[in-house]
Design a protein that fits this description.
The protein is built from 15 helices and 9 strands. With about 350 residues, it is of the alpha+beta class. Helix 2 crosses helix 5, helix 8 runs antiparallel to helix 9 and helix 13 runs antiparallel to helix 14.
């Protein structure tokens, strides 16, 4: 059955914005900005609704900061009221974008996520002897605004919604050239970027008849039964991303591997019989866990705050076969903060 058309009125409605605000506020209520907005929820949302419907809404400037892990990049944080609009917008367009998504794309989709992606890749490495690994050079920073608008216009018919989409797209990303790039850290950017590579998914599956494919954002795996088939797929993909999407493959990570040597994917290495964390990720994981324990011991962190971060790190590690590593960590740690290393069950 054809999904309902996404509309601007749907995004700008009071009920949709209230729902979006509550969703955006989850896990962020310690922020004074978020707490202040939610304390005045009704007047704040009514103000947003008036601005959107009256055509006076303008996003506020991003707050930017730099991170070094898992790789160096600039993060752009939108004001909370803008994040409310992001959530309402994405809730409206998500069913429309889902219609054209392939089942082997796992980012920004219900039923997707890292755990589902790793499980699927684990099946693929048992079925096919070789894998082609692809990545896009500076993917999010290089997205072509014109191409993105064209792809969205083919799926979104409502003029007001197209204008709102263009408003966020045209903001670009700090430091990116005009007409290129999306701000890393925005919910809209995640959905736009994932949708942008949908045509490449369909090239592999429908155009080239590839028997196995998996993608999480721009981390792409293509499975096959011979080097020749996979290198041919690589050349076709290289031409396609340049000619149709205005992007470039990252040559230093483009390679064909036997799956028995391990398939690097999302910070893990997938073998036919197990999933290990990438060695660099293991080192970062241990360093972060140690930092949390030291923070509690020195009084720099409250135990409940540190526990939330530790739970997140333990949950990430549990995506792989890391029970022995987590148990070993729990047994070795002592003194204040020891509870941060708890391991409840095998991953």
């Amino acid at each position: 059955m054809r999904p309902a058309e996404a509309t601007f009125a749907q995004v700008a409605s009071f009920p949709a914005l209230v729902t979006a605000a509550r969703r955006a506020a989850r896990t962020h209520m310690r922020s004074p900005e978020v707490a202040g907005f939610m304390l005045e929820l009704e007047p704040e949302v009514l103000r947003l609704e008036r601005e959107l419907l009256g055509g006076t809404y303008l996003p506020q400037p991003y707050r930017t900061f730099f991170i070094r892990e898992p790789k160096p990049r600039t993060i752009s944080a939108a004001a909370f009221r803008d994040r409310v609009v992001h959530h309402s917008l994405c809730a409206a367009i998500e069913p429309v974008l889902e219609v054209v998504a392939v089942s082997s794309s796992f980012a920004c989709r219900r039923g997707g996520g890292v755990l589902a992606a790793l499980g699927y890749v684990r099946q693929m490495v048992r079925r096919h002897p070789y894998v082609l690994k692809l990545d896009i050079h500076h993917f999010v920073e290089s997205l072509d605004h014109g191409v993105l608008k064209h792809l969205l216009a083919r799926r979104i018919g409502d003029p007001g919604l197209r204008e709102l989409l263009a408003l966020f797209i045209d903001l670009g990303a700090p430091g990116s050239p005009p007409g290129r790039g999306l701000p890393i850290g925005n919910l809209t950017s995640q959905h736009f970027a994932n949708f942008y590579l949908g045509p490449l998914d369909r090239l592999f599956i429908k155009g080239l008849g590839i028997p196995g494919h998996a993608r999480y954002m721009d981390d792409i795996l293509v499975f096959g039964d011979s080097h020749e088939v996979l290198w041919n797929a690589c050349h076709e993909a290289d031409r396609f991303v340049q000619d149709r999407l205005g992007l470039v493959l990252k040559p230093e990570v483009t390679r064909v591997l036997p799956v028995t040597t391990g398939v690097p994917f999302l910070g893990f290495v997938v073998f036919p019989g197990l999933v290990r964390m990438d060695p660099a990720r293991v080192r970062r994981w241990r360093r972060k866990m140690g930092s949390l324990n030291r923070g509690v011991a020195l009084g720099h962190l409250f135990e409940d705050q540190a526990q939330l971060s530790a739970d997140s790190l333990l949950g990430w590690a549990a995506h792989g076969d890391t029970y022995a590593m987590r148990r070993s960590w729990a047994r070795r740690r002592g003194g204040p903060g020891r509870q941060l290393s708890g391991v409840d069950h095998p991953g």
